[in-house]
Amino acid sequence: MILGLDVGNSQIYGGVFDENQKIILQFRKNSRLSNSSDEFGLFLVQVLRENKIDPKNIQQIAVCSVVPDVVHSLKGACQKYFKMQPFLLQAGTKTGLKIKYRNPLEVGADRIANSIAGTHLFPGKNLIIVDFGTATTFDVVTSEKEYLGGMILPGLRLSMEALETKTARLPSVEILAPKELVGRSTVESIQSGLYFGNLAVLKELSREIKKKYFENKPTVVIGTGGFSRLFENEKVFDALIPELVLLGLHKALAMNVDKPSSPTTKRKKYETNTAQI
Q: What's the CATH fold of domain 2-90+249-276?
């Protein structure tokens, strides 16, 4: 089994793949810089056991992170509680992509993982990948696997928290799809602004990307991330894949690290390949 961990600014999103490369477990945990390796390790062991998965059956661990300070603790947790070094998706690892960023080191590992998964799920297709997380990101990938770059906007929750903390009388609200465009209370107005404002941005930016970068040729728009399901009924996505980052991590691991041949040799073989990356 393979354990994948996506470390975001707000949460750690994890998943377990079985021997058939199927995700059999998904979980989330609030990410805090103060978490120690023991806290991470105990949490991972507990969540596996609570879901009837023996931690000893985890053969490989893959991590992508946009929070460098958390990586050290996670590495320590993997070493102590799983007796192995995790694979870290970072600069220098194989991705199968042609990164066109001016400085490839600046691209978030989660964005790369999403793009890897997108190119494997939709080979030979132009892609727009929209990830609704702490930040909302747009990633643009050509049919030739060229990662052109993208856009970064404040996420839905971040926008809501900014309204709450930076204004005198606006409250915190539940983020949901409102029934009407025009809100008839302060709460409804905030919910409408968050939802329909982001929907308008999603539609317009997708339209402009298709026009300016793909000459309006067929393009697959993929929605992913925690809030992607909020727009599920708006017909703005060609595919809605909330677990896209985990699928990309799984593919990246396969490209960079050999699959263990047996339980008795898995850790030694894994460490050898990690050293070669």
A: Nucleotidyltransferase; domain 5 (3.30.420)
47-58 pLDDT, tens digit each: 999 999 999 999
Residues near 206 by Cβ (< 8 Å), separated by ≥ 6?
A: 128, 130, 138, 221, 236
Q: Are 41 and 81 in contact (CB under 8 A)?
A: yes
In this prediction, the residues of the chain whose per-residue pLDDT falls under 50 are 261-277
Q: Do domains 2-90+249-276 and 122-242 have the same CATH topology?
A: yes
Topology of domain 122-242, per CATH?
A: Nucleotidyltransferase; domain 5 (3.30.420)
Query: Phi and psi of 17, rounded to 5°?
Result: -100, 135
pLDDT for 146-177, tens place per residue?
Answer: 999 999 999 888 898 898 888 888 888 888 89
Query: What pLDDT sits at residue 260?
Result: 54
Complete DSSP assignment for 204-254 = HHHHHHHHHHHTT--EEEEEESTTGGGGGGGT--SEE-TTHHHHHHHHHHH
What pLDDT score was predicted for residue 268? Answer: 31
Catalytic residue among 38, 54, 69, 110: 110
User: If DSSP codes are grouped into helix, strand and coil, which group holds residue 27?
Assistant: strand
Domain boundaries, the chain: 2-90+249-276, 122-242
CA gap 221, 206 in Å, rounded = 8
Tokens of 43: 């949490």
Cα distance between residue 128 and residue 235, in whole Å: 15
Q: What is the pLDDT of residue 231?
A: 93
pTM of the prediction?
Answer: 0.86
Q: Residue 124: left (phi > 0), alpha (psi -120 to 50), or beta?
A: left
Is 38 an active-site residue? no
